[in-house]
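Our platform keeps sequence and structure together, in a single record for each protein. Such a record has a labelled line for the sequence and another for the backbone structure tokens. This encoding replaces a full spatial description with a residue-level series of whole-number codes. Below, we set out a record of this kind in full and without editing:
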Amino acid sequence: MPSPSLNAKNKPGWFPRLIRGVAARIDPETYEQTQGMGMTQYGFINRVKTKSGVSQFGEINGTANQFVIERPGAGVPVNPSRALESFKGFVYASVNAKAREVMTIDWRLFSVDGDETTEETDHELLDLLDSPNDNMNGLELKYLTSACLDLAGNTYWWLEGVKNETDKPKAIHLMPSDRVTPVIDRRSWPEQLIGYKMRLTNSEMKFAPYEVVHFRGPNPMNFFEGYSPVMAGAQYIDNDNDAMRFNSNFFRNGARPSMWLESDFMAESQLEALKMGFMDVHGGIDNMQRVGVLPKGVKPSIVGSNPKDMDFSKMSEVMQQRILAMFGASRTILGTAESDTNRATAETADYVFSKRVIKPHMIAICGTLNDRLVGRYADNLYVSFIDPVPEDKAARTTEMTTVVGGQPILTVNEARDEFMGLGPVDGGDALMKPTAMGPATETGDGEGEPGGKPSDGGDGKPQPQNDPNAKTVRKGILAGHTKAANGVQVGWRPPRTKFQKLASRRVTMAKSLADKITADLKKKLSQPSKKFVSTKEQDEARWKEFSEFTAAAEKDIAETVKKINGEQKAEVLANLEGAITKGINPADLFDINKWISITTDALTPIMNTLFEHQALAALAEIGKPDVNPFSETTAAAVRRSVQMMSESYNQTTLAALEDHINDGLQAGESLADITKRVEQIYEWSDNSRAGTVAKTESFRTANSALKTAWQQSGVVKTVRWYTSEKDNVCAYCQQMNGTVIPIENDFFKNGDSITATDANGTAQTMALNYGDVSAPPLHPLCCCFVRPDEISID
């Protein structure tokens, strides 16, 4: 069965956002606990069996991808998966030609210290690039990096084990280019990259920007995703594939003659027997050119065009030339033009290919490595490569001969070592003169006036002082001068100004850090601190006051969310019949951007009121009632938090609708049955999700208000985690009780985990991969809050 066209009109289906709760209040996420129960950020979800496998209520298991890259002008999407599938024929030959060259180019690592540049031949970064992981070597990594760039426009490396921008990776893993999508915050400009998503069979993984090295081809239409030669030349590739399929089908379905059989027969059985008999004898490529005999009353009528008429050979050649042009390759580079190629044209083609295609390709790859990886090891390092451009030795020899006036410039031993790989001989270290071939002299200081002592190993007389015909000879090869393994120079290095700025920045940072430490020390000595006095009874009373006001906001939030659910359900039911005419298209159910705005606008006033009340109460408790905690900055932060929650909530709803409506369609259910499914989803949202979201987000906003207010006061130095006295407190929160941190710090960073022992004495671990935990809640429905711990004495 032929593969779909690269520029087919039938786009892949809408990308389902795989439900895993809410991660960082941006996208859903699930974290697992050892008891085998899935837990989203908004509560436990019992696993159930679906037709697609084990899933959760509201979980999407699809693998479709609508994130496609547009072709310039035409607006026709080219899916990265289809682009990777084009790795055959002349596309394979072109991509393979580039990737093989890249694979054979060696990395070179240099360190810069002022004006001195030193090559590092033994370094852990080189070891990592040579052996990135247990299942791949460095040659494969280079080949596949180049190939994915040329096919899909993007190559992604996952750096295993990094927790921030400065950690060194334990290994490098190549990610599937067609399954990874950058996550972009497009709510304001300039737009920001906030992470990456990778689709798996039944789930989705998310990565922080610092975990991924993203190589991409420059794309004027999308600055965050790359553009490839395959995408640019999709039409040419399609035409070539179509021509090949036409020819294949022509011979497979019936070689010439291709015709109608005109017959006087009237009975269908006679006509069918005639057709089948003719196809058995003359159909297919194996029966081509066989002599045919027709019954009386039957005559052939030739129809259609054959490959010669349509000149497929010429068209295919034109398409192939255009495909090669997209990759900057030629038939000579592919080794398919021997008949009209001699050594000179082959060397010229190799020179042009190396200079115009391979070298810029490698420079772009090294630029990304230096920007995203090398800085993790030191800020004075850079990666380069051996220049692949062949040297024009004839031109270089002619130029050198002209410059030195025909005099020898190498000693015999230097020539033996450089060109023949042989060892030195006695007397071979003397530089000979061109006339009597005696030893040449060198200058006394290497760059002063001619004349001086003879070179080591020779007994020639020194040149006369002030002789205008005397030639200056340097003492030896400059210290630190290195050549590449093949005798050519390094292919590329970043501008030296980059390292000068880094060196200057290091000095400035060191001075700034020293000044800050000194200032902080003086401030501490001049402003002693004390513990914030708060008994257990006072903590309990303050928590009760805190939770009561939060409960009032929680009720308002839940009612508002339920009202939004009802209005949204009415819109979905009104659009349902049209949305499932030819398979579900979630975008036809409701406008997700509109409902994100509605949810954000409805909930923001409630959150603002909650934030302001709790912030003022926090300031009054430490004796700073005059500080205004609610500024434009904090108001914007609250709205941004609400908007992130609104995005996740509506995305979860839309994904759940798609999943369950698709199940109904696959089961052949009627519109009435599918309508019941929709009503069940909104019933679940009203009865479970609304309350969980209200509780979790109200406590999150209130705790954020406490910590923000204390930080703005300038007197609170540390905060303490307080766990409520409720009977149903989990083991994780019990373990956190009393934990103290500096007020500017987080209790947990995204990706951390916490281990606690439950009532049965079993150790349980929970991964905190849904965002930094700067304050409670630790998990859905968490009722903890923060207390001031250490404050400055005025």
Notes: Residues 451 and 465 are 6 Å apart (CA to CA). The chain is about 45% helix and 15% strand. Confidence is low (pLDDT under 50) at residues 1-76, 442-488. The two ends are 81 Å apart (CA to CA).
